[in-house]
């Protein structure tokens, strides 16, 4: 991009400042995108599926006997649930930086590490040991999603990023559904080898994690500049398409860049947007089996009834996010997700006597939070600079946003089972906070774009650095809306 080039809201280039770049062969570009889709997304999808199975299995293990055997009285289960997210908060950003430094294959190393801790959860003898293993598991998993998000953004244009990321996220959503089936099967191993059913949920899923991580290692793509799975012309086209994207091969990490990210209120707005819906997403993964059991289902029935909720949430998320990306609008669709979530939470708070209506509330909750989550992440990171700053921002939004999980783990009180009035009311308040943060970000971005357009006018001032490298600091940068 030339230094005089104006970048508009969604990556379009003003005709007055055309860069003169050659028009790509559209057929070749379509073939390239299909090849990227087949090479990058499926393997990351499988890894995330396993990731979420490991993360959400504590809710299934709880109703399969863990609560009684480990004497999880009072808030002990909640502590075991939220300490996982403490690991995220402590290790997420540093490990995301290490991912950028050592490359995408480090994702498999992380995966093997957390697989070991998952097996450990199945071997613990006391509640204290469970807390420690869950903390270590959270630390090991903390950079996986942010690393995958960065890798996807490195290969795709801004108009393709959200669709690919939301397809990646469906693995986590559907893992909740599969977990119900898997847990229902694994509980049949009760007593095998002298281990209770809930232990086998952890042990078998940990073994599967290690096996899949080991098998996946050769198939994880490197960063674009090192891609060997593309021919020469394909690689040149891919690098040309994404040169204004989020990856920068020659970037270095500095304290100044880290401080800039911490001082950027727009990133913190992204954190608030993510936090506003993450609390409800985590309540679904950790407490949905308990909530459904409270509707009158047996443990096995509760496991199975989680499946339609997750499948519906995944379908709605994909449909809405694809429309959002094609229309190049993020704010209205994030707000739509919040509205759907608020409807679901309101149903759960009202606690109508008919359990079928309460069950319907779970569908609204899943559809709303799973729609808003990817938009909060991608919208925020599109407005950051490239390279380490992009990685740092993604790590902040995802891992500080998991503070919502801290909250959900401590407001779903055992004594309030199955109504969980405090938990759902807290989720409702956070959803409004997320909507407020998104509105603030939208208004600021729209106004800032308007002022920059007015100021730009006929000004041809030369700026040291390009829009791609300087991001929002460049006067020609236009915020994504």
Automatic annotation (TrEMBL):
Entries under Pfam families matching the protein: MFS_1 (PF07690)
Phylogenetic lineage: Eukaryota, Fungi, Dikarya, Ascomycota, Pezizomycotina
InterPro entries xrefs: MFS, MFS_dom, MFS_trans_sf
Bilayer topology annotation: Multi-pass membrane protein
Residue segments, region Disordered: 1-22
Domain Major facilitator superfamily (MFS) profile: 40-453
Coiled-coil positions: none
One GO location term (cellular component): membrane
Keyword set, alphabetical order: Membrane, Transmembrane, Transmembrane helix, Transport
Compartments, as annotated in UniProt: Membrane
Segments traversing the membrane: 79-99, 106-127, 165-187, 199-220, 307-324, 331-351, 357-379, 391-414, 426-447
Keyword presence, Cytoplasm: no
Protein name: MFS general substrate transporter
SUPFAM superfamilies: MFS general substrate transporter (SSF103473)
Entry keyword Transferase: no
GO molecular function, a single term: transmembrane transporter activity
């Amino acid at each position: 991009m030339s230094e005089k080039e104006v970048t508009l809201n969604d990556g379009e280039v003003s005709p007055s400042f055309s860069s003169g770049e050659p028009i790509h062969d559209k057929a070749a570009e379509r073939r390239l995108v299909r090849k990227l889709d087949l090479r990058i997304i499926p393997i990351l999808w499988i890894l995330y599926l396993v990731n979420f199975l490991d993360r959400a299995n504590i809710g299934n293990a709880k109703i399969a006997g863990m609560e009684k055997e480990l004497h999880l009285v009072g808030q002990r289960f909640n502590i075991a649930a939220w300490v996982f997210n403490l690991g995220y908060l402590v290790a997420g950003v540093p490990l995301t930086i290490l991912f950028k430094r050592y490359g995408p294959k480090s994702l498999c190393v992380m995966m093997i590490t957390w697989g070991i801790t998952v097996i450990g959860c199945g071997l613990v003898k006391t509640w204290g040991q469970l807390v420690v293993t869950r903390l270590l598991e959270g630390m090991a998993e903390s950079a996986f999603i942010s690393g995958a998000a960065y890798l996807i953004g490195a290969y795709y244009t801004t108009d393709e990023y959200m669709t690919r990321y939301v397809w990646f996220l469906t693995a986590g959503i559907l893992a909740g559904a599969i977990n119900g089936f898997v847990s229902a099967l694994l509980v049949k191993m009760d007593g095998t080898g002298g281990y209770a059913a809930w232990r086998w949920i952890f042990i078998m899923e940990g073994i599967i994690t290690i096996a899949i991580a080991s098998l996946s290692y050769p198939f994880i793509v490197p960063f674009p500049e090192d891609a060997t799975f593309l021919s020469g012309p394909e690689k040149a086209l891919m690098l040309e398409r994404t040169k204004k994207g989020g990856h920068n091969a020659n970037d270095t990490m500095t304290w100044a860049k880290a401080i800039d990210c911490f001082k950027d209120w727009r990133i913190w707005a992204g954190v608030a947007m993510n936090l506003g819906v993450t609390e409800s997403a985590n309540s679904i993964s950790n407490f949905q089996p308990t909530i459904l059991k409270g509707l009158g289902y047996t443990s096995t029935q509760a496991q199975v009834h989680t499946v339609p909720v997750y499948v519906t949430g995944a379908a709605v998320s994909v449909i809405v996010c694809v429309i959002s990306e094609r229309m190049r609008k993020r704010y209205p669709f994030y707000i739509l997700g919040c509205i759907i979530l608020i409807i679901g939470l309101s149903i759960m708070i009202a606690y109508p006597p008919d359990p079928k209506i309460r069950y319907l509330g779970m569908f609204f909750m899943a559809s709303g939070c799973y729609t808003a989550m990817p938009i909060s992440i991608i919208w925020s990171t599109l407005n950051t600079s490239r390279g380490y700053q992009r990685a740092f921002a993604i790590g902040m939004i995802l891992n500080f946003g998991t503070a919502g999980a801290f909250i959900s783990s401590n407001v779903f009180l055992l004594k309030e089972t199955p109504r969980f009035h405090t938990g759902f009311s807290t989720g409702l308040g956070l959803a409004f906070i997320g909507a407020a943060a998104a509105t603030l970000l939208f208004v600021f971005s729209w106004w800032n774009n308007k002022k920059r357009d007015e100021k730009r006018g006929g000004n041809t001032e030369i700026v040291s650095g390009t829009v791609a490298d300087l991001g929002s600091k460049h006067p020609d940068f236009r915020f994504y809306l």
